[in-house]
């Protein structure tokens, strides 16, 4: 983990950047396009979107403009999207993948995820992802918001094990059991809402640690993610924040600092509960 181009290897041999740009709740338009371009120019190589975000067109435009202006090859970027709950079926998931590609203006995705574990639907969707993967149309496949029991249920019938599980993960929700399970199964954990929607940015414990390193609380949290072996995708549209979020490769938290951050856990979610959602 030396810089923004540093990667981890998924269990199928595909390399995925440790840090990427998230675009949840960023609407279509120039702000989104600029955010994607700014991130890539600052060295980011990974962008995470989803069909339900309604912004794949702008993400795709930002990618194309950045590629044109920087000369970075598409193959050096890692683009993720996700299939929404209403499309979870074999044929409908494949159709959703095609639609995401069309909106993004890409020939393939690096990672495609099932967005939520909708009971009775995610196995058919997973079969579709396996087909896309076997056909070489997507580089890696995975899930999002899956708990241990969802993963165990999925893997009972799956031919291919998920490569990634993207979940809500931050110092108030450390997901220790899930993290241990994924590590044992060689499923890469990825954090969404790593900064807890900004709710941790005035935490006194984190501020003390940040002061010690001359860093911001956001940088300390993102570094904690990385040292826990968790990929992280902070969201921002502001250039100074995009740059700041990426400056986490020039310091290392001590074991005591890591434990202190772990101790902030309250099993508190800012997003929906994967065992109790109705959408």
UniProtKB/TrEMBL annotation:
<dbReference type="InterPro" id="IPR023210">
    <property type="entry name" value="NADP_OxRdtase_dom"/>
</dbReference>
<dbReference type="InterPro" id="IPR036812">
    <property type="entry name" value="NAD(P)_OxRdtase_dom_sf"/>
</dbReference>
<dbReference type="Pfam" id="PF00248">
    <property type="entry name" value="Aldo_ket_red"/>
</dbReference>
<dbReference type="InterPro" id="IPR018170">
    <property type="entry name" value="Aldo/ket_reductase_CS"/>
</dbReference>
<dbReference type="InterPro" id="IPR044500">
    <property type="entry name" value="AKR5G"/>
</dbReference>
<protein>
    <submittedName>
        <fullName>Diketogulonate reductase-like aldo/keto reductase</fullName>
    </submittedName>
</protein>
<dbReference type="InterPro" id="IPR020471">
    <property type="entry name" value="AKR"/>
</dbReference>
<feature type="domain" description="NADP-dependent oxidoreductase">
    <location>
        <begin position="26"/>
        <end position="265"/>
    </location>
</feature>
